[in-house]
Amino acid sequence: MPGALLALPRVLRRLTGLVVLAAAMGLLLAGLVVPVVGAVGQAANGSVAAYDSLPSEFNIPPLAQASRILDGNGKVIATPYDENRIVVPLSKIAPIMQQAQIAIEDDRFFEHGPIDPRGFTRALVTNLRSGGTDQGASTLTQQYVKITMQEDALSQGDQKEAEAILYDRTYSRKLQELKYAQYVEQTLTKDQILAGYLNLVNYGDQSYGVEAAALNYFGVHATQLTLPQAALLAGIVQQPNAFNPRLHPAAAQARRDVVLDRMASLGIVTSKQAADAKKTPVPKMLVNTPKKGACLASTQPYFCQYVLEWLEKSPQMAVLGKTPQDRHDKIYQGGLTIKTTLIPKMQKAAQKRLLEAVPMNGKNNLAGGVTIIQPGTGRVLAMVQSSSFNKVQVNWDVDTQYGGATYGWQFGSTAKMFALVTAVQRGMPITASVFVPPAGPSKPYVFPASAYHDSCSSSNFAVRNDFSNGATTMPLAYVTAQSINTAFANLTLNLGACSVRDTMTKLGLHQADGRPISTPANSPADIALGSGTTTTMSMASAYATLAAGGKYCAPFPVTSITTADGKPLAFKNTACSQVVDKNVAAGVTQLLKGPLVNGTAAGVWNMSARPAAGKTGTTNNHNQAWFVGYTPQLSTAVWIGNLKPSDGHSLYTLNGKCFGIYGCIGSVFGGTVSAPVWAKIMRDASAGMPVKQFPTPGGSVLTGNYVSVPSVIGASVSSAQATLRAAGFSSYVGSSIDSALPAGVVAGTQPSGQALSGSTIVLLLSNGHAPKPTHTPGPNPTPSPTASGPPRRFPPTH
Hints:
The chain is 38% helix and 13% strand. Among the domains are: 2-285, Biosynthetic peptidoglycan transglycosylase-like (Penicillin binding protein transpeptidase fold, Orthogonal Bundle); 409-652, Beta-lactamase. The chain has a five-stranded antiparallel sheet with strand order 7-6-19-18-17. It has a four-stranded mixed sheet with strand order 2-1-5-15, with helices on one face. A three-stranded mixed sheet has the order 21-24-22. It has 27 helices and 24 strands. A hairpin with a 5-residue loop joins strand 17 and strand 18.
């Protein structure tokens, strides 16, 4: 007797298997017409054996569900998904929703096993009477198995198998599904099966699972669903497209009413409750939801796009998969929670202040972008542009690989920071004076090809200043504040354009396509004066290096990733590296205070309230205008310019364009609009932060580290160059000067006495005419105009 009792479960399973097989072989099941006469005797024994040999364990893979992208405060800004699904427990689904789904799909769900004999018999009789195969008898468990199998096939990219599961009605496949249903009923509770079903099925309109559907159609959670809402959702499952209430409201309403009638006939609701629920037309039940697509629906679409591209392509994100496609699948199906670096307060401030100057989707080819970086970490705190995502999907602030433009935009005199870093690091004190070759707006100073001593340039380099000045030495601090072009062109050539370009690369500056700034065998204008192209993110990151005391951190947008089951994914964010000496960074920062104190951006910032440093930038023909500046806590780059730089032959200009609250401006420079926008953004973003001071430079940054320059006065050009070369200097022939020495010999050098090791010495040749006695003035006490615009004490140009 005990042995018989132990064998009873096995006997029952065999009997269930026999019933299933008999049903499949001799009756109608789920639309299959088969002979009525079942197999008996030896045939039955063989059939049971065949059934027993089928695989029984049913693997239930994790459901694909939407991930969540959060801002720095934990608020959702996007939900990327292949299938819009949010898995919730049964306790988070309103009982009326559970009852509605059971009523219309399988009202005896809690009373039967994997097969419902009553429903099966009803299907048989109906189909025999009609002579067709219209009436099915699949239980909710069988549907759950079938849809789960299909979901698994799709998640593995097997479209052919997914279609076979849906359309193949062979006995072998039907039997296998029944065997799996039997296993599911034996291993899961009814509540577990129901919860799995309600989280799995397609409710139309790209909504999978009841929680996503409730939010999509009604803007409520599944716990809050009402009777008419539950009936509408329950009815969609049979044909998710045909009963999609957004696409086919009349059909959806008719189907909803069928569900309500069924619920009333089963006694779940009263007839009056069902009638009341029918009164509201389906269109009035629905709420407007954002457009489909993770970033189209996002509150911050450009940042959303950047995050998704970065997750798929950044080396740091190998934790999500080896290939971009692997990572995509993990992001769009894995139910991840992705917390980002975005600070809403700063994002709001940047958007507001930029749009005050450059209207959204502005006409007249006018555009703008802003990026804020946290120095010392590389966190991207804010990123905005003056366009709407539904019209422009290109992100103007980031590299091409992350959804940005192909090259970026010319950055003008913001490039001069890199020459300063190179010079001070080489040993030039911030108290130094530098030679300023003479030039004006119509008469350039031409640096000959012989002035170059590296491979970053090979042709004559004509440089203009916006106002006539030069032919003298001026303090480095002064030419920085006033952004004098010929001073920095000369400095760059003395240092070596390739050396300055290497500094740019070291500080993270590059074109949007990832290549270094400058094209070899060309003019050094890309390096010396910012004729190259870049993005606001690249520029903000480079300047953040100085704010962080010479530590460069590549920008990144993600701080943590958590799996659907709450486990954190371990990954390393950008490693920071010390690329500039701390004292050098402090010295260059001291110089870059000048533009805000008495230079091209004077008047936009209160230095006594909060120290800051930065640089204006304006390109040829006033085509683009920049300001990049920083405090110890924030680095912000503002670009305002022509979205399309030229007509193919000549550059467009910003001159004469209108800039929102700043009005229409005749001559536009980096200090005209970009600097004021930067200042407002930084004031808003810094509000509440402690005021921090920049480190004070000292040592060789103040005293310099020069070496002696051999005297070559009176020597021939070839002899002088040989002498200088032996001392480690390169040289080239500059202009002629009045001198009593024979014409053609060296009458002077620039610099003379001392210079940076390895720098370029300009040979000034005698013209054979003794100089006339004259008063030699020092640097012009009136600030000289600059490439980035006239200083504030000049008459306004707008």
